[in-house]
Structures are given as C-alpha cells and as structure tokens.
Amino acid sequence: MRRSRKTDSGSPSHDSFLDIVANMVGILIILVMVVGVRVKNTPVTATIPAEPDPAHAELKQDLAVEASLRSDVLRAEAENKALRKETVIQGRQRDVLATMASAMEHEIQSQRSRLDATSQEDFDLKRQLAGTRLELEELQRKRLWAETAPVEPIVVESLPTPLSRTVDGKEIHCQLRGGRIVAIPLDDLMDTLKDDMRRKMYKLRDLPETTATVGPSGGFRLRYTLRRHDISPEMAMASGRSGSFVQVHKWTLIPTSSGLGESVDTALTEGSQLLRTLAKYRPDQTTVTIWTYPDSFASFRRIKKALYEMGFATAARPLPEGVPISGSPSGRKSSAQ
Q1: Which of 21, 48, 139, 337 has a CA positioned 20 to 30 A from the CA of residue 282?
Q2: Cα 286 off chain centre by
Q3: How buried is 277 (Cβ within 10 angstroms: 0-12 exposed, 13-18 middle, 19+ buried)?
Q4: What pLDDT does residue 138 have?
C-alpha cells in the first residue's frame, strides 16, 4: 500500500506569496510607464518679463555716481588751486600796502614831532577831519549805488520733491544720448518678440538656450535670449507639475543709428515728434522713463522740468557710456518722481 502524505493546511502557501509580489511589480511598472508618457507629452510653457530693466542696474548706477563724484572732486581741486593762487597774490598786495602805510605813518609822526604843542594839536584835528571826510564820502557813494542799482527779480522754480515711487502703470521709454531724445517703441518690439519666440521654441528641445533678434522698429532692434528651465523631480513632487518651461533670460536694444531722435530744443517745441508721441497718453496715468547717458545729464534736467509742467511723472535710468539699454526678469522696476 502507498502512503499518502498529508499537507498542513494551516501553513501559508508560497505560491500565493509569489503571486502577490508579481502583481505589485506589475503595478509599479505600469505607474512608471504612465508617468513617463505624461512627462514626454507635457507642453512647454513660456513667461515674458513684465517690466524692462537693465542687467546689473545697481552696478551701472554706481558707476554713473562714481563718475559724477570724480568730476566734482576734480572741479573742487581746480577751484582750490585757483583759490590758493589768489590768496598768495592778495597776501603780497596786503604786505605792500602795509609797508606803504607804515612808511607814511612814520613820515607823519616825524613831521609832527618837529611842531610845537599848539601846532601838534592843530595837526591832529586836521588829520581827524580828513579821515571823517573820507568816511562820509564812502557812505554817500554806497547810498547812491543802492538807490540807482537795478533790482534783479528772484526766480523760484517749482519742481517735484526727490521722493520716488515704483512705476506700476503705463510707461513710455525714451533714450537721451548726445543731446538727442527719441521715444523707444518697446511695447511694439515686445509684441514682436512674443510672436517670434513661439517660432523659435522648438530649438530648445535639444539646446538649453537660444538667441534671436527682431525689428527694426522706430530705429531699434531687440536681441533676446530664451532659456529652458527643467523642473527637478523634487520640485515636481512639491508643486505637482513636471516637465520644463521657457523664459526670456535677457533682452537688449540695438540702435540702428547713432543720431536717432531730435535735439532737446526741437523736442520741446510744438509739433515735435516727442510731443506727438506724448499726446497719445494721459499724463496722470503715464510715467516717462528716460535712459540717460553721461553726455546728456544737463539735458535731462530740462526734459524733466518740461514733463513736470505737462503733468508727467519722470523716471531716470542713468547708463554708463557704451552700455546698451537692456532688461531681464530679475531686474527692478523704475522709480518715478
């Protein structure tokens, strides 16, 4: 007879355990494939910088301030040198006059000593009388000059206080260089940039960044750089978004000519190109940002005064010579006065 071997029905089955492990592995493989498909099909998004600002604006402004301070120091040194020279000349003249006065006083005392007591008293009285007459003539000359001298009017200019505020509304950009001012069609160039970048985004599938140029418009071209930013797995888990996005890393204005715009005198006359451009905007809702180079700081004060009288707020953007107008998403907004 064959003995049948009994199985212990109370012990766990190894086949069931292997089935559970196989099912879990299959589920994980399916999840990995789904996530991979979603990442591959995620659309590329783009963001446009809302506000233009020059790269490294603080460094450029510091350089402009340094140049202004250096000019002030050199001018003060020249004035100090001229003052020292004038002081030496006046000191020599004072010594000559003092010597002559001492000699005359000595001669007077010598003549007085030769007189008797009565004559000396009469001599002293005449001397005092002569001195009093000289003082009276000097007072009469000062009075006559005060009565006939023309009175110059005192002109008090009313300009805004140096309190600034961040620009949040409509903004017009102008370049002031070589004593000439020109309005920059930055809004039109930015609209062209948006259309052009949609056609160039395919290049970022294989490259981390790409550079292109649009324009010209109003005498300016705009060169911009697109950069792809990949979202890390950690950021994807934290934000619930995965894939990558494209952003304008930097833009730069390239003038088509060195003599763009019109002179400040022409720009401030009726019918000028600048005034025609400003007439399209409401002064109480618009800020005029002027990118100013060192050779036109004096002209900027004239432009600012005229804009203030028209009701426009003004923002100054000083630039060192040779540095183009540019902006980036990390830049700061303009501050108007």
Answers
A1: 48
A2: 18
A3: middle
A4: 79
> What DSSP letter does each residue of 8-53 carry, written as one string?
-TTSPPHHHHHHHHHHHHHHHHHHHHHHHHHHHHPPPEEE--SS--
CA proximity to 193, closest of 217, 177, 160, 169: 217
Length of the chain: 337
Per-residue pLDDT reduced to its tens digit, 60-115? 666 776 777 677 778 878 887 888 888 888 877 777 777 776 766 666 777 667 66
DSSP for 98-150 reads HHHHHHHHHHHHHHHHTS-HHHHHHHHHHHHHHHHHHHHHHHHHHHHHHHHSP
Q: Helix/strand/coil (H, E, C) string of 231-299?
A: CCHHHHHHHCCCCEEEEEEEEEEEECCCCCCEEHHHHCCCCCHHHHHHCCCCHHHEEEEEEECHHHHHH
Q: How far is CA 52 from CA 138, 259, 279, 330, in A?
A: 67, 23, 23, 9
**Tens digits of residue pLDDT in 312-337:** 999 889 999 889 999 887 766 555 55
Q: How far apart are CA 287 and CA 248, in angstroms?
A: 24
Q: What is the pTM of this model?
A: 0.50
* CA angle (212 as vertex; 211, 218 as ends), nearest 5: 135
Higher model confidence: residue 147 or residue 195?
195
pLDDT of residue 4: 47
Which helix (H) or strand (E) segment is 86 a member of? helix 57-113
C-alpha span between 272 and 263 (Å, rounded): 10
Question: Do strands 326-327 and 209-217 pair parallel, antiparallel, or not at all (unpaired)?
Answer: unpaired
Number of Cβ within a 10 Å radius of residue 244: 15
Amino acid at 88: V
304 SS3 class: helix
